Amino acid sequence: MEIQFREFNPFDLWMWIEFESVPSRNETQYVEELFDSWFYLGKLGGFNAENLQIQDTGVEVSYLEYDHDYAGNAMMAPMHNMGDWEYLGMWGRCWFDLGTSDLVALDILANAMTQLSKDFVPMKRLVIGGENPDWPIEQEESASNGWYE
After folding, report:
1. Is residue 110 in some structural domain?
2. Is residue 138 part of a domain?
3. Least C-beta-crowded within 10 Å: which of 13, 18, 26, 115?
4. Do residues 85 and 16 make contact, with C-beta atoms less than 8 angstroms apart?
């Protein structure tokens, strides 16, 4: 699966998936559950690069003394909103407001999507940002999207 970036605005971001064929209901459910899980982790501030104490420790984490004060003083980095998934032929799209979450969120999403494509839902590409010329976005569509708050 190819991963492409287009114009990127974290507060008004469309993500596009091009499937290998028109997706079945089961396939769209896999995709939506992955994105819902990713979004909920982001909504809770899980993608906060300011507090990666465990990752920054290295491979030996036995008896790691986690610094709760450091974690508590890190600036919040929550995602804000997610729209509803829409499908048209071999394409799916969804709108996001990534808020102040860090870009590590996109690495984690790319890893998960790559594996999902290998194991369950064959996809040609994930496009992050921008617009598809054959499926335009109406200006008011981002603002009126069905958000999870």
Report:
1. yes
2. no
3. 26
4. no
